[in-house]
Amino acid sequence: xxxxxxxKVAIIGAGSVRFALQLVGDLAKTSELSGTLxxxxxxNEERLNATWILAQKxxxxxxxxxxxxxxxxxxxxLEGADFVINTAAPSYPxxxxxxxxxxxxxxxxxxxxxxxxxxxxxxxxxxxxYYDLQLALNIAHSMEKFCPHAWxxxxxxxxxxxxxxxxxxxxxxxxxxxxxxxxxxxxxRTLGLEAQAVDWQVAGVNHGIWLNRFRVQGEDAYPLLExxxxxxxxxxxxxxxWDVQLSPAVIDMYRFYGMLPIGDTCRNxxxxxxxxxETKKKWYGKFGGIDNEVxxxxxxxxxxxxxxxxxxLAQEVKKxxxxxxxxxxxELFSREKLSGEQHIPFISAITGHTETRLILNIPNQGxxxxxxxxxxxEIPVWVSGDCLRREPLQPDLTERIKYMYLLPRIxxxxxxxxxxxxxxxxxxxxxxxxxPRTRSFEQVQExxxxxxxxxxxxxxxxxxxxx
Length: 467
Hints:
Pfam families: Glyco_hydro_4, Glyco_hydro_4C. The protein has 17 helices and 13 strands. With 467 residues, it is of the alpha/beta class. The protein folds into 3 domains: 1-91 and 129-178 and 295-354, Alpha-Beta Complex (LDH C-terminal domain-like), CATH 3.90.1820.10; 181-284, no CATH class; 399-463, no CATH class. The protein has a 6-stranded parallel sheet, with helices on both faces. Strands 7, 8, 9 and 10 form a 4-stranded antiparallel sheet that branches. Strands 11-12-13 form a 3-stranded antiparallel sheet.
């Protein structure tokens, strides 16, 4: 694609409201993408209409040259698209709450989806994320028909499993996106470093990345971290449940693996940090992180309220066109500040504008030594004019990271895809048989049967042959 050509961006799952509006805002503030057509699509009509109303108003207030449209069907959204952003999350969050409760009833603290190296709440759903994988596969196959040359920007979780599935079993150009790498900036701020002065890299898999390169003025900067650990780490306190980047769990993982875990990686550790709420508070601070029985339900309720707030705001805008979003809700509807998401910089770079360094999920192809070439890894990538150039990793990740963290996590990805592709419920059972919380095979069968008996899981139950 050459610079100057008009671009079509389809946002699937635009009923997420807030996230879709962030993307629209970033597009509106990116002058080289003026004239872009943004197509919004979601099956939730109320939230889709709210996004539509607020997006139009936001673009108007920014005086931006963007064309917006809302369509009711996937084929219409995809027809002629250059970029497709999949942010649709069919399992999130209500299904998770139900499944977690059933899991705990059967002795699985925080539900059956809390697994070693995959502890992040709501990342996976019933071990194989059936609904999320099925939707992503349907979108990709539709893209093969309606926009075969488009890029798919996979945003909805599980990013690792979905991007791997699409990379191997479809012809679409799929790239996984996550903002977890931004945890590096918290590290830099804490150590008193200006981000632009730091030479850094992260590498691993989604929600499992590590600070392999950390240099300032050509010198190793890890001694600065060691100094902070020795002198100040005991003073660390989280400001909120998400604030875990320099928690005791992170320092402990750094000591064991030899490099600093970044972003959500520390939430994806072993049971050592996650046996119960008391254990979580020891390692993640006074809130116990976000992945526990107190903070996660609270967050889900905040999400529901936040979405309803935006739906209500859309109705206010509809009634009173003089209302200014940039004044009544500036933290979301900013006039100048970008969201920090990588999607629009990616689109800008691909369409022939400035070469851009991003942290993306793409096939390894030799980037991380010892990891198969076809495995989706999260690494620094230079993006320019339809080309993705992997940045050489220097230094390499430690052997412990690769063999005691990444490969076990990659195996879990393979197990999830094996369950999904084979439709064999015995794979789900086998995953749980290997769970340290399991005490009998009957426990495994009973928890899965109860989960599959939920009305919201009817389609999945039929897929795996549950009666």
